[in-house]
Design a protein that fits this description.
This protein is an alpha/beta fold. The protein has 10 helices and 8 strands. A 5-stranded parallel β-sheet has the order 2-1-6-7-8, sandwiched between helices. It has a 3-stranded antiparallel β-sheet with strand order 3-4-5.
Length: 281
Amino acid sequence: MMSAARAAFVLCRYVHVIRCSIIVFLLQRISRSARQRRHSDCGLESLCGPTVNTEHPFRDRTEAGQELAHRLEQHGGRDDVLVLGLPRGGVPVAFEVARRLGAPLDVFIVRKLGVPGHQELAMGAIASGGVQVLNERVLDALHLDQSSIDRVARLELKELSRGERQYRGNKPMPDVRGKIVILIDDGLATGATMAAAVQGLRKLQPAKLVVAVPVGAPETCDQFRHLADEIVCAREPADFAAVREWYENFQQTSDAEVHELLQQSRNLRSEKDRIDQNKRR
C-alpha cells in the first residue's frame, strides 16, 4: 500500500489542489483505518501486531521532554551539541532535553511563505539565520514571479525578526556550523514545518542534524529517516491521528513562556560553567 504521505505528494503534484494539508490529514486517517481493519481480519496479534497502542498520553510537554531526553542521552556531556526548539510548543520539550544533556538551548523559527491569495498553500519558507527555502514545483505550477515571492518574503521576514527579538533579545543566533544540532518539536503530524526547518538548517552546515520528537505519525517519522542524519521519535503509535491526542495537557505555549524557558536554560548553563571553572582551579 502506498503510504499516506506518498499518496498526498502525488495528488498535490498532479492535481490543482489548494488545501494539501487536508489531503495529508485525510489520507493518514484512511491509512490508519486500513491498518486497524487488517489487524482485525488477521485475528492473531502475534502475527499482525496490536490493533491499539497501549501507551498513555504524556501528562504535558514537560513529561514528554523528559522521556525524549532519555532517548538522547548518548549526546550528553559534549561541548559540540546544540538543542534548538521550534516555537512555540517545541521549546518546553527542548528545555527538558537541553537540561538533561547539559547543552545550550535556543530557538529555530520557521515562517511559511504562503501563495498570494491562497496563504494556506506553502510556496516555501524562511527560517532563522536568513535561510530561504522555496518549493519549485509550486512556483512552476502557479507561474509565480520573483517580485511576488519577494513581497511575501519581506512580510514574513518582519514577523520572523519580531519573534527572534522577542525570544532572544539582541543576542545573535548561535553558530551551528560544525555542531551536532538536535532539532525538537512537540510532535510530528505531516512534518511540513520540521521539513522546512531541516532544509534551512542544512544550509548553515551543522556537522550532524538530529530530529527529535516525543510522538509522531509512523509514516512521517519514516520520511525523516531520509531527511535528517538521525531521527528519534520516542513514540510512533499505529493509531496516530493528531499530536494533541497524545497529551493530556496541550495548552498553547505563550511567547512569555518561551522567553522564560530560554532564560532559565541560560542561567543553568552559567551555573554549570561556574561550577566547572571552580573544579579546574
